């Protein structure tokens, strides 16, 4: 007799008990699948966050930190962490922080950038801010952000040129 035949021969109470057991087993399998899916989503979110804040060594002692998209508190912390780790790893003395891809710079974003620059300076790296759009420049001035301690250049190319001068490096053109 197979399972189906024995199920038909059971009384109603036994059938309900078996059904309840099967439901409990399916609920447990569903819970395990949901937990596995949640872990996968967290892992992918972390990978995306790390990829969205690359720090690129472009020359001896020179790093470029291109920032693209919105910057919130979580992403700002990831930017600082990645940058400080890279500064230590390659013993960088100059960081070019390029914000060409940042559409909106408000007070919070400006403060995140200032904290990033200050943290880099504590580790001995000079920071050159590049790619500030005319709109963001007006916003920063309008917000009253203290820009006197920032080194800025209008483009990544101009920032690289200054970085080479600061490190007495020769670029290969």
Strand content: 15-25%
| Residue runs with pLDDT of under 50 for 5 or more positions | none
Q: Fraction of residues in helices? A: 55-70%
- End-to-end distance: 82 Å
- The protein's oligomeric status is single chain
If classified by CATH, what would the architecture of the largest domain be?
Answer: 2-Layer Sandwich
Rounded Rg: 28 Å
Helix tally equals 6
The backbone outline, from C-alpha atoms, is: elongated
Biggest sheet, spatial arrangement of strands = 1-2-3-4-5
Superfamily (CATH H level) name of the largest domain? STAS domain
CATH class wording of the largest domain: Alpha Beta
Biggest sheet overview: 5 strands, mixed
CATH topology of the largest domain: Transcription Regulator spoIIAA
Number of E-state strands: 5
Compressed to H and E, one letter per element, the order equals HHEEHEHEHEH
Explain this structure to me?
- The chain is α/β, with parallel strands linked by helices and 173 residues long.
- The protein has helices spanning 3-9, 12-51, 73-90, 107-122, 134-143, 156-166; strands at 56-59, 62-68, 94-101, 126-130, 151-153.
- The protein has a 5-stranded mixed beta sheet with strand order 1-2-3-4-5, sandwiched between helices.
- Helix 3 packs parallel to helix 4.
- The protein is elongated, with a radius of gyration of 28 Å.
């Amino acid at each position: 007799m197979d399972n189906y035949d024995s199920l038909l021969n059971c009384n109603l109470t036994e059938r309900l008990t078996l059904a309840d057991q099967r439901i409990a087993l399916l609920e447990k399998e569903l819970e395990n699948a949901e937990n596995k899916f949640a872990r996968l989503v967290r892992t992918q979110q972390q990978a995306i966050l790390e990829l969205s804040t690359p720090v690129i060594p472009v020359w001896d002692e020179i790093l470029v930190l291109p920032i693209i998209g919105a910057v919130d508190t979580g992403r700002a912390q990831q930017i600082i962490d990645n940058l400080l780790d890279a500064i230590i790893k390659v013993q960088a003395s100059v960081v070019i922080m390029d914000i060409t891809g940042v559409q909106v710079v408000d007070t919070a974003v400006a403060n995140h950038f200032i904290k990033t620059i200050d943290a880099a300076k504590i580790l001995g790296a000079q920071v050159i801010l590049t790619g500030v759009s005319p709109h963001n420049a007006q916003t920063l001035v309008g917000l009253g952000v203290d820009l006197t301690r920032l080194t800025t250049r209008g483009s990544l190319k101009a920032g690289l040129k200054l970085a080479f001068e600061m490190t007495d490096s020769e670029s290969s053109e």
